[in-house]
Amino acid sequence: MSAENELRPPAAAGAPGAKTPRTAAVLPAAGRGVRLGPGAPKALRALNGTPMLIHAARALAASRAVGLVVVVAPPEGAAEVKSLLDAHALDGGDRTDFLVVPGGETRQESVKLGLDALPEDIGIVLVHDAARPLVPVDTVDAVVEAVRAGAPAVVPALPLTDTVKEVEPRIGGEPEPVLGTPARSRLRAVQTPQGFDRDTLLRAHESLAPEGEGATDDAGMVERLGLPVVVVPGHEEAFKVTRPLDLVLAEAVLARRKANRGY
Ligand SMILES: Nc1ccn([C@@H]2O[C@H](COP(=O)(O)OP(=O)(O)OP(=O)(O)O)[C@@H](O)[C@H]2O)c(=O)n1
Ligand SMILES: C[C@](O)(CO)[C@H](O)COP(=O)(O)O
């Protein structure tokens, strides 16, 4: 190294000359899928014959930025997930490595278990729901790009199409009093992958673990630390498979892709 190089201050993330940090994705797939109804764990259910988590893993591996995917498997299903990855040739080819770890009781716990498995050299982490199997690679890349450009936390999101009411929740189908109507123009429906500077996400998960119950997304935990989170455009095909009708929509999207692209 020349004396000139030794004296040069480290380039900021995104600045010319900055070394691109290695990116990994944590893929939480350990949920039961209660809202989808009885059956296998949701991530193992098939869309057009292929398990949902394989669709999601392929979507992440399609990004040139993603070098490692940590799949967080249903607690008793790690061996099955490993076999599925092998069977679908997602066994650590030349660009993307795969690791499988068992998940926890909540999404937050599962993500933390995935983070604990990351190697030291990872600088950027994506967290992507296996339940969003059809996210386009352009959305994955846009999130990575925004983190590389210096944002500590990035979420893809879409404007809402419904009007939203805040209510006083009641159980048992009783009518719920409306408390207000937030301005729709300021609301966004948040998707995944959410992208983070690794240290920021680790700090959020480590400091908010005890009182973090109820955090429905990772960016929300970063917000609780008082750190900035930014939104990039999401995609309608990155919707979450939650209820039975979502399976119908997902298969329709796959059929449309097949018709448009021939695969
Ligand atoms: N203990 C859990 C719970 C959820 N997840 C994952 O988090 C993502 C988003 O969660 P959600 O859609 O709520 O999935 P489920 O928890 O499976 O659904 P449900 O709440 O209907 O049971 C899914 O990919 C799911 O597998 C997880 O890894 N570990
Ligand atoms: C992370 C998430 O997909 C962002 O919309 C969502 O919050 C997950 O919620 P769920 O209740 O675990 O499905």
Taking all Cα atoms into account, the compactness measure Rg is: 19 Å
Q: List the secondary-structure elements in sequence, H or E.
A: HEEEHEHEHEHEEEEEHHEH
Q: Tally the helices: what do you get?
A: 8
- Distinct ligands, ions and cofactors found in the model: cytidine-5'-triphosphate, ligand LQXTBERG
> How does the helix and strand content classify structurally?
alpha/beta
**How would you name the CATH homologous superfamily?**
Spore Coat Polysaccharide Biosynthesis Protein SpsA, Chain A
CATH architecture: Alpha-Beta Complex
On the 0-100 scale, what is the average pLDDT? 91
Low-confidence regions: 1-14
Number of separate structural domains: 1
Tell me the helix content.
25-40%
For the secondary structure, the number of strands is: 12
What report would you give on this structure?
The protein is an alpha/beta fold. The protein has a single domain (20-156, 189-261), classed as Alpha-Beta Complex (Spore Coat Polysaccharide Biosynthesis Protein SpsA, Chain A), CATH 3.90.550.10. The protein has helices spanning 3-7, 52-61, 78-87, 107-116, 137-148, 198-207, 218-224, 244-261; strands at residues 22-28, 46-47, 50-51, 66-73, 97-102, 122-127, 153-159, 166-167, 178-180, 188-190, 194-197, 230-233. The strands form three sheets. Strands 1, 4, 5, 6, 7, 10, 11 and 12 form an eight-stranded mixed β-sheet that branches. The chain has a two-stranded antiparallel ribbon with strand order 2-3. Helix 6 packs across helix 7 (218-224). The longest helix is centred in the last third of the chain and has 18 residues, at 244-261. The model is unreliable at 1-14 (pLDDT under 50).
